[in-house]
Amino acid sequence: MRSYSEAQHIVDTLSDANFPVENVRIVGLGLESVEQVTGRKTTWTAAWQGALYGAWMGLFFGLLFLFFAPVIAWRVLLTAIVLGMLFGAIAEAFSHGLQGGRRDFTSFATTRASRYEIHVVAGLIDDASRIINA
Description:
Structural class: alpha+beta
């Protein structure tokens, strides 16, 4: 098969026929890693990303702290978020500066296959073939 959706359709057909699909695997062959560059990374963008991550971590730890200490909630949360943002921004900007320009871009990576195969447990191949070819 050329696409994952084709393989998925075959397994769905088997499932609709009450075939025991826990005995089926979709195997991707010819794997390749693709990294999509999404933009330039400067010290400011690194600091901003660090601040956002720090805000989430501050919120998490602030909420965790609220479970164990009877205090004024909004002050604890606000303080945790601000400190998280500050620490995250400084840490990420510092980390970016240490790289010395070796990775001045942002990206995300995916892995994809060039083709797919359906593998079925040996004792069920005839049943699966009958269902697919019907």
